[in-house]
Specification:
Layout: H1 2-17, H2 21-26, H3 36-55, H4 58-76, H5 82-101
Helix pairs in contact: 1-3, 1-5, 3-4, 4-5
Length: 105
């Protein structure tokens, strides 16, 4: 459970404490048509970096980066609410811990 807490800690830092309101808007296509993809990608890489740092797994780091990008993109496209977005992010952390415990990474 220690690793799960650390993953939630990293997620909280990257999604809330380290992300300004200004930057959050820059991830949206409607607010920033020219560079939204770079901003969303940078944000997702930060998340992947936290996962890699706490798990020691480059594979999980890459999975988190891709998953975070896709989940945030879906929310920005109006496919689901911020509550579903956060639940999906937490579900990913549960999956990463499960993969670690099963020795899959």
């Amino acid at each position: 459970m220690d690793i799960f807490f650390l993953l939630l800690f990293g997620h909280s830092l990257a999604d809330f404490a380290l992300q300004s309101s200004e930057f959050q808007k820059k991830k949206y296509i409607k607010h920033n048509k020219e560079t939204w993809m770079y901003n969303l990608s940078a944000h997702s890489i930060i998340h992947g970096g936290f996962v890699g740092f706490f798990t020691g797994s480059l594979f999980l780091s890459l999975l988190e980066t891709v998953a975070h990008w896709l989940i945030d993109f879906g929310r920005m496209e109006g496919k689901y609410s911020v509550h579903v977005d956060q639940a999906l992010h937490i579900a990913c952390k549960v999956l990463w811990v499960g993969m670690l415990m099963k020795g899959m990474v």
